[in-house]
Structures are given as structure tokens and as C-alpha cells.
Design brief:
five-stranded mixed β-sheet; about 45% helix; about 10% strand
């Protein structure tokens, strides 16, 4: 894993990009905005690409999810879209299930939890649970993110930078093991590694007493003062 030799890996990658005259941090910012899907190359204008992402999400809700979950009817599809729009404006989002059900006029709390599960299964959302909870029991997620940063820009031209950083990390780590929302730090992987996400000057205060805890920082090329550069996690694939 990257954590074993982060300095060596970052140096190798930065040297290679520099040899080709590429600005790695600039490319990373572009990737966050509109580089997640290869389909970006099919659109000359960025707004058309973002429109295509919204259309894809609507297609997932209208066709893909009802095929897998037959209990999703026309009304459910409408509610799913309203729920997603609400979440997209607030990510990373810690839901108040009862309040959210009431505001969106969703039948009951269990129905809302099912909707969140469906959107996660459709890879529209990433739901993070506490270590002792699971989506299988339709528990309340501790944190909710859009699946990837391009979705965030499709819904909002200027999403909060902290939101983008955490969304990127959630997307990278969710495929590496059991990703949960810890009481300290932003993410915990397999109950072993804790990550706190922030900018270049983020301190380790919140996780200083946790073993195998790491600050993951934006806007740095190399490991600095025990900070890992956030872009390196894009190479977990």
C-alpha cells in the first residue's frame, strides 16, 4: 500500500511528470473538477459534460435502480431525485433522518434509509457508517458524500474545497477495504488506519493520540512534516 513507501512513490511520480513538462498539482485540480470520467473528452464544453453527468444520474434512478430494486416506483424515483439534490447542496452531510423525512415528505425513516442505501448501491452516493454499524441493516449513515468530485461540480460550480477533498478521499478509499467514519479523524480504513484531511497547514491535533493516523494534505507535492500529499491516493488503483 502507499503508506509503506509514500516518499519513494511521490518522488518517482513527480519526477516522471516533470520530465514530461507536466504540472502535477494543476492536473490534479483539473481531475477533481472534470477528469473522473473518460467521457469528458466527448464534450468540447465543460457545461455539456456536467449536463451529461446529471443525465447519467437521472438514468440510474429512473432505469437502473428500479431494475435491481422493484419496489422503486414512480413516486420513489421522484423522491430519490429530491433527496439527492438536497444532499448535493450539503455534502459531506450528516443526516438527521427524521427531519429529512419530514422535509422531503418521505413516508417514514426506514424508507429514507432505504433510499440512501439505493443511491449508494447505484454509486451515486458514498455512505459512511460508524464502525459498529452497517448498510445491511439500513442504519443511519454517519456521513454522506457524492460518489466522486465531478458529481459535486455538476451540481455546484463552486463546491466547498473541504468537501472536494473529502469526497476524493472517500472515493479512493472505499474500494480498499472497510471504510468507516471514526469519532476522531475523517476516515478509518479496516479499523486500522485513520486519516485526517485538510490543507497544507493542517495540524495533527485531532488524531495525535491515535496509532497509525495520518494527515492527508492538499497543495503539497511531497510528504511534508508527516503530511501525505492527497493526490497520491489517486494511484491506489
Amino acid at each position: 500500500m502507499i503508506l509503506e513507501k509514500p516518499q519513494e512513490i511521490t518522488q518517482t511520480i513527480t519526477q516522471q511528470t516533470k520530465q514530461h513538462g507536466l504540472d502535477l498539482l494543476f492536473m490534479f485540480k483539473q481531475y477533481l473538477r472534470d477528469g473522473y470520467f473518460l467521457s469528458r473528452h466527448n464534450y468540447l464544453q465543460e457545461n455539456l459534460y456536467f449536463d451529461s453527468l446529471i443525465n447519467t444520474i437521472n438514468s440510474i434512478i429512473d432505469a437502473d435502480l428500479p431494475y435491481v430494486f422493484p419496489d422503486i416506483d414512480t413516486l420513489s424515483r421522484t423522491k430519490l431525485k429530491l433527496l439527492l439534490k438536497h444532499i448535493a447542496q450539503k455534502c459531506p452531510f450528516t443526516p438527521n433522518i427524521s427531519e429529512l423525512s419530514r422535509n422531503l415528505n418521505i413516508a417514514n425513516d426506514n424508507t429514507l434509509k432505504k433510499y440512501l442505501f439505493y443511491l449508494s448501491e447505484g454509486e451515486v452516493l458514498t455512505n459512511l457508517y460508524s464502525a459498529n454499524k452497517s448498510h445491511k441493516d439500513f442504519q443511519k449513515p454517519q456521513k454522506i458524500f457524492l460518489n466522486n468530485t465531478n458529481f459535486a461540480f455538476a451540481y455546484d460550480d463552486a463546491p466547498h474545497l473541504g468537501t472536494i477533498r473529502e469526497t476524493f478521499m472517500a472515493n479512493c478509499l472505499r474500494y480498499q477495504g472497510n471504510l468507516t467514519a471514526p469519532t476522531q479523524g475523517d476516515f478509518c480504513l479496516d479499523g486500522q488506519w485513520t486519516f485526517e484531511i485538510g490543507g497544507r497547514f493542517k495540524n495533527k491535533r485531532q488524531i495525535k493520540f491515535i496509532k497509525q493516523a495520518h494527515v492527508v494534505a492538499d497543495d503539497i507535492l511531497f510528504c511534508e512534516h508527516d503530511h501525505l500529499p492527497i493526490w497520491i491516493f489517486g494511484f491506489l488503483w
